[in-house]
């Protein structure tokens, strides 16, 4: 596990095993930050405290199940192919 500022250069060696590498990114930002939903259409906010007076981003529903899953299939950019890679990386 690592915690760091996303502006810090960081990385790890390639995964040489036959197991998937799992990653989770959590970003904490002010409510006036607006997500570009054309790039990340599944983005949702979850308020930690205070009020969102700007209401620029869709609000996520807090799961009611202890170990719930989203209703969509998750794939990596590699699994999705080159077309998805060009969208993510603007290639």
Mind explaining what this structure looks like?
The protein is mostly loops. It has one domain. The chain is 13% helix and 0% strand. It is built from two helices and no strands. The chain has helices at residues 77-80, 82-89. The chain starts with 76 loop residues before the first helix and ends with a helix.
Short description:
This protein has helices at residues 77-80, 82-89. By secondary structure, the protein is largely without helices or strands. It is extended and about 45 Å long.
Query: Would you count the extended β strands for me?
Result: 0
On the 0 to 100 scale, the average pLDDT is 80
Number of domains: 1
Strand fraction equals: under 5%
The run of helices and strands is HH
What separation lies between the terminal Cα atoms? 30 Å
Which word captures the global form?
A: extended
Q: Could you tell me the radius of gyration in angstroms?
A: 16 Å
Protein topology:
Blueprint: H1 77-80, H2 82-89
């Amino acid at each position: 596990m690592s915690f760091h500022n996303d502006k810090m250069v960081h990385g790890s060696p390639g995964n040489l095993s036959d197991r998937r590498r799992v990653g989770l990114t959590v970003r904490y930002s002010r409510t006036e930050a607006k997500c570009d939903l054309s790039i990340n259409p599944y983005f949702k906010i979850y308020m930690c405290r205070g009020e969102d007076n700007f209401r620029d981003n869709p609000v996520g529903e807090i799961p009611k199940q202890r170990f719930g899953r989203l209703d969509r299939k998750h794939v990596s950019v590699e699994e999705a192919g080159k077309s998805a890679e060009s969208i993510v990386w603007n290639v």
